[in-house]
Amino acid sequence: MRTSDFEFDLPEQLIAQYPPEQRGMSRLLRVAQSGLNDANFGDLQHSLREHDVLVLNDTRVLKARLFGEKTSGGKVEVLVERVLGEHEVLAQLRASKTPKAGSGFILAGVITVTVLGRSGEFFHLRFEGDVAVADLLERHGNLPLPPYITHAAGDEDDSRYQTVFAREPGAVAAPTAGLHFGADMLKVLSDKGVGIAYVTLHVGAGTFKPVRAENVEEHVMHSERYSIPQATVEAIAGAKARGGRVIAVGTTSLRALESAAAGGALRAGAGETNIFITPGYRFKVVDVLLTNFHLSRSTLLMLVCAFGGMDKMMAAYRHAVANEYRFFSYGDAMLIEREQ
Fold first, then answer.
1. Is residue 278 a part of any domain in this protein?
2. 3-state DSSP call for residue 184?
3. Beta-strand runs (E) in 142-223
4. Residue 117, exposed/middle/buried by CB under 10 A (0-12, 13-18, 19+)?
5. pLDDT at residue 209 greater than cutoff 80
6. How many structural domains comprise the chain?
7. pLDDT reported for residue 96
8. Strand-strand pairing, 288-292 and 246-249
9. Nearest to 178 by CA among 258, 289, 269
10. Which of 95, 97, 102, 191 is the most buried (most CB within 10 A)?
11. Burial code of 60-83, b = ≥16 C-beta within 10 A, e = fewer?
C-alpha cells in the first residue's frame, strides 16, 4: 500500500474551528453495508440496539502546553507528551536552539525546568520544586488544541475539548468522537438497553503525525498507554452472548480493545500499544465504529479504511466533502459498520 492511496482534497473552510453550539448538534454520516445515509447525531439512538455495548475512552486531556524563556535567553514552548512521575515528563520542545542536557528554563514565569536528556523526538524534563507536575499543569498550562485549529485555547475549549465522561488525566489530545455525547444522549441509550463501558487510552501528540513514508509499511507508529478494566471485558462478553454488538466510540477505544485482544481473547489489564491498523487487518472485538473525519494520509484514515473497506470509506470521504460535512476534532461524525 502507498500513502498516496489515502489522500483526499479538503477545502480549508470545512475544518471545524469551533464546536457546535451544543453537544450532539453535529451531523452523522452512516456508512452501512447497504450504502451511505446522511443523518444527525441525535439519530444515533435509532442505529443502536438493545444488548449492544458502547465503549467510551475516559481519558482526560492535560493542560499540557506551557510557554517560557530559557535561562540563556530566547523563548521556549513545551508540550508535555507524558507525565513520568511527580516531577518528570517527556515533552516536545520548541526553541530557537535545541537545549542540551543540564540546561534549564522558566515556564509561565514560575516553573523552573531542567533538561535531563533526550529520547528520540522527546525531551526528558524535570520540574523542580515540591509541587507535582499535574498540579503545575492545571495551574499554569494551556489546553493543547490540535495544530489545525487556529485560535488559542479559551474558556469554551477548556470544557468542550473534554468529554463529559473524562476522568483519567493523561492525554494531550481529546478522544474526539466522544465529544458529541452529552449526559442526555448517554441516558437515552442506557434506557434503551445499550450497555456503557469504558477503556482508557491516553492520546499522544503522535495522533496528528502525518505518514511521511510513501510505503505504508515503513511508517513507525507512536506508542500510547492504555488500560482495560475487567468490568469492560465482562460487559463485552455479555453483549456478545446476548447477540449484541460492540460499538467503539473513537479510534482510540478501538485501538485499546484490539490491542488487548492481540492474543486472540480480550483481556483486562494495562500496557503500551503501537498497533498500526491498515487494510487487511482482521478485527477481533469491534463491530461498529463511531468516529470523526480524519486527516488525509493519516494512520487514522488508514484504520477506518481497514474497518469499513477501502473503496467504501474513500467514497464516504468524497461524499462528506461534497456535502460540506465539518472535519476533524470539532467536526461531524461517522457511524461505520465493519466490512464483513
1. yes
2. helix
3. 168-171, 195-201
4. exposed
5. no
6. 2
7. 84
8. parallel
9. 289
10. 95
11. bbbbbbbebebeeeeebebbbbbb
| Residue percentage of the chain with pLDDT more than 90 | 89
Identity at 130, one-letter amino acid code:
D
Determine the Cα–Cα distance for residues 263 and 69; give it in Å rounded to an integer: 47
pLDDT band at 284 (very low <50, low <70, confident <90, very high): very high
Give per-residue pLDDT as tens, 155-184: 999 999 999 999 999 999 999 999 999 999
Distance in Å from the first CA to the final CA of the chain: 21
User: Which whole-number Å values give the CA distances from 65 to 62, 140, 180, in the listed order?
Assistant: 9, 9, 24
pLDDT above 80 (res 210): no
Least confident of 20-24, 40-44, 65-69, 97-101: 97-101
What's residue 197's pLDDT?
98
Question: pTM of this prediction?
Answer: 0.94
- Locate 207 and state its grid cell: 495522533
Domain match, 297 and 319 both: yes
Question: Would you state the cell numbers that stand for residue 291, as one nine-digit string?
Answer: 468516529
Calpha distance 111→127 (Å, rounded): 7
d(CA 243, CA 12): 43
Q: Which residue has the cell 491498515?
A: 278
Can you name the residues that pair with 126 across neighbouring β-strands?
88, 114
Same-domain check for residues 126 and 223: no
Q: Within 13 Å and on the Cβ side, how many CA atoms surround 131?
A: 12
Among the listed residues 230, 229, 284, the one whose alpha carbon sits nearest the alpha carbon of residue 255: 284
Dihedral through CA 266, CA 271, CA 276, CA 277, nearest 10?
A: 20
> Going by C-beta distance under 8 Å and a sequence separation of 6 or more, which residues neighbour residue 229?
198, 199, 268
Read off the C-alpha cell for 126: 524535570
**Domain carrying residue 8:** 3-61+157-337
Residues 181 and 292 in one domain: yes
| Cβ(251)–Cβ(173) below 8 Å | no
